[in-house]
Structures are given as C-alpha cells and as structure tokens.
Amino acid sequence: MADNPTLQVEPRTDFGKGFARRARVADKIPAVLYGHGTDPVHLLLPYHDTFLLVKDNPNAVISLKGLKDPAMVLVKDIQRHPVKRQIMHMDLLLVKADEKVDVEVPIEIIGEPMSGLVANQDLLNMEIFAPVIDIPEKIEVNVDGLEDGVVLSVADIKLPAGVEAKTDPEAIVLSVAAPQEADIPEAPAAEDETAEAPVADASAEAAE
Asked: Where are stretches of biased composition, namely Low complexity (predicted)?
C-alpha cells in the first residue's frame, strides 16, 4: 500500500443534495466506500488531489488516510457533470493487495500496417480481470506490418502476465484495409433560370 498514491479523506454523516452542493463549493467530492462485506462508508475527498489521480487513470488504486483504519481502494465509478465534466461523486471499492478485480481499460493501437493501409478500430475498451496491484492503464495492440484483410479479435490480443480478458473473445478489435473514399453526394442541378414562366390561366385573364 505504500507504493500507491495517498489521499487524506474525511468521513461524513450529512447527506442530501444540499450537503453535496455545499461540499462541492468547498472543493470536496462526496464519495462512498464499500466492499468485502463491510457497511458503506460515506466520505469527502479533496477535489484537486483526487482529480490529479484519476484524470489519466480511471482505475486508480489509492491508499486512504483519515479513517479509523488505513484502506486501499479501487476507483470503481466516477460521476461527472454532463456539461462541465467536473467530478460530482465517486464510488470506491475496498480491495486487498493479493486479489484480482474486474475493470475496463482502453485499447490503444500502436504502429502502422503495410503502406497504404489503415487499421480500423472497432472496440475502444476491453473488460479484463487483473491483479489489483498491477492493473494496466491500457491494452496496446501493435499493427506494424499487418496486411490487407487482417482482422484481430479479442482472442488474438496478447495481454500482460496475470491479466485475463472478460470481453467476448470473438469480439472484433480492429480490421486492416485500404482507406475508404467518402461518397460525396452530387449537388442538385440548378433550375434553368431561362425557363418560361407558366402561362396564366385563360379564365383568370378573362376575369380581369
């Protein structure tokens, strides 16, 4: 636990939207800690320090101080403001150093396929089962030199030692092909400005 980043947290006993709003004004994030059969513990996290820990790693493992007993937790869920994207609430899962957890990590394509080809990514994230002390921040898929028509599924991806895929092994991760030219719709033909105006109805002319 000493190698994990540490947060100083505060237990909280007040609840409700009004309290949560006041907490955010004070640069605190309401959070709940649960897991291993324990009763949920409601906390306040320091906004700035927490933001720095999770901005590039939504599966961060963090040591908490300020509780009755030190705790190691996995960030399980981050709720953000739909427009401002500020952190509004977090769920923290109590974990132990010797266990594995289910998490979702992004897939990143590295390298370049054969000249003139592109790798079209179909799957952006992968569900994995990984050691809590060694969760990869991403899964890299190397496409260097791959030929036209190559299709890689989850089962084809080499994962770090101790990591298992939970996503359907037949799910397509990417395919290699020549770039597709976008179909640009033709502009509608302009009306002939020299077309004769319609002849007025004879009965209308007679009425005048």
From this structure: 196-208
